[in-house]
Write a structure and sequence with these properties.
Blueprint: E1 5-13, E2 20-24, E3 35-36, E4 39-41, H1 48-60, E5 63-76, E6 81-93, E7 103-107, H2 122-128, E8 133-136, H3 139-142, H4 144-156, E9 161-164, H5 171-186, E10 191-195, H6 198-204, E11 208-211, H7 213-217, E12 227-232, H8 235-243, E13 248-251, H9 267-277, E14 282-285, H10 293-298, E15 303-306
Parallel strand pairs: 1-6, 8-9, 8-15, 9-10, 10-11, 11-12, 12-13, 13-14, 14-15
Antiparallel strand pairs: 1-4, 2-3, 2-7, 5-6
Helix pairs in contact: 4-5, 5-6
Organism: Thiobacillus sedimenti
EC number: 3.6.1.55
Family: Belongs to the Nudix hydrolase family.
């Protein structure tokens, strides 16, 4: 017999500096003393958005003014199976304070200091350390020297996640480009994922690999590296990326692109449904620019992935 699933609306309150709010579970509840994201059970007939607003008003005394769907994860605890419907809350009225005796702490996702975390939240914290903009390398079209110059500008301006693609370059040239990209990126605290083999990523000192749809489909287990991204175009590919343990996905094309004029697109409605159901963060790709970040987030995207737009 399949256990009943408890629907939960979970909130990631995000400060402008990237810190997120964690709450310690009070005595008398399962996992007392563990840290988690605020939220609670969805009542019968209640929408997820209504449950989120109610829980945050009851627990924290705040009124939500801008919340965006993010990801959905199912987790089996000994006492219950829960579906955690995560929202990122970017704006609210009032100052969060404990209405139910909890202890709160603002934490940086890449350096959480409170312990222990609820088991379900380890992948959530890792996902929250992903930046909102991902840049896809464009050295084939720009030329290597021009790309590296533009990379320096982008890193100076805050780009912190790079997918090194440029698959048509000769192997030796691609390795050299990867090593130089990693060197410059790491000097700014940015991460680089190499599109292709794990051997190439390791030789370049990269932070992980990015899998195109065919490469992801050929795998049944996660590549052995710190970060794994995957390119996806539909629900099946997105589910498989999550099943093999990818940390995030690029979902495309959202809108018409210069690269593939006339090709079918997802559109925001389909993108939003796929992103909300995904257990891993999804970047929107295709026809988007930096100015579309808030729009993409309002449709469930973690952020935007840019090819040309990252280097202009």
């Amino acid at each position: 017999m399949t256990a009943a699933i408890t629907e939960v609306a979970a909130a990631v309150l995000v400060q402008p500096d990237g810190r997120v709010l964690l709450a310690q579970r009070p005595a008398g509840k399962p996992y007392a003393g563990y840290w988690e994201f605020p939220g609670g059970k969805v009542e019968p007939g209640e929408s997820l958005e209504a449950a989120l607003a109610r829980e945050l008003h009851e627990e924290l005394g705040i009124a939500v003014t801008r919340a965006c769907r993010w990801i959905t994860r199912v987790f089996e605890y000994p006492h219950a199976t829960v579906r955690l419907n995560f929202f990122r809350v970017f704006e609210w009225q009032g100052t969060p304070h404990p209405h139910e005796g909890q202890v709160f702490s603002w934490q940086r996702p890449d350096a959480v200091e409170v312990t222990p975390l609820l088991p379900a939240n380890f992948p959530i914290v890792k996902a929250l350390s992903l930046p909102p903009v991902l840049g896809i390398s464009h050295a084939e079209a720009l030329g290597v020297d021009s790309f590296l110059a533009r990379l320096d500008v982008a890193l100076h301006d805050g780009l912190r996640l790079i997918q090194l693609r440029d698959k048509s370059l000769a192997e030796a040239a691609r390795l050299e480009l990867a090593r130089e990209t990693v060197r410059r990126a790491h000097a700014h605290g940015a991460r680089v994922l190499v599109n292709g083999s794990l051997d190439l990523a390791r030789a370049a000192g990269a932070d992980g690999v990015h899998l195109d749809a065919a490469a992801a489909a050929s795998l049944s287990v996660r590549p052995d590296c710190e970060w794994v991204g995957a390119s996806c175009h539909d629900a099946v590919e997105l589910a498989h990326a999550a099943a093999i343990g990818a940390d995030f996905a690029l979902l495309s094309p959202v809108l018409p692109t210069l690269t593939h004029p006339g090709a079918p697109t997802l559109g925001w409605e389909t993108f939003s449904a796929l992103a909300a159901a995904s257990p891993i963060p999804v970047y929107g790709l295709g026809g988007l620019g930096r100015d579309d970040l808030a729009l993409a987030q309002s449709h469930g995207a973690h952020g935007v992935a840019l090819l040309r737009g990252a280097w202009t």
